[in-house]
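Why does residue order matter? Because the sequence determines the fold. Keep that principle in mind as you read this record.
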Amino acid sequence: MQRLTPPHAKVPVQHVHVAGRRTQLAQTGAEQNLLAAAAASAGLLIGGGILYRRGRTAAR
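Structure:
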């Protein structure tokens, strides 16, 4: 059994994609949720600090 090859095999072309100047992340809509989570986190940290200081003062 012989292998048949085309007489003029074409070389595969590699297309190169050139990115624009600035890269940009996808718009996911998470900005509002992230802001709310950051505010809640800051509130919890401040509240925890206040409770910690009150507990240390009461233990003396």
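The chain has one helix and no strands.
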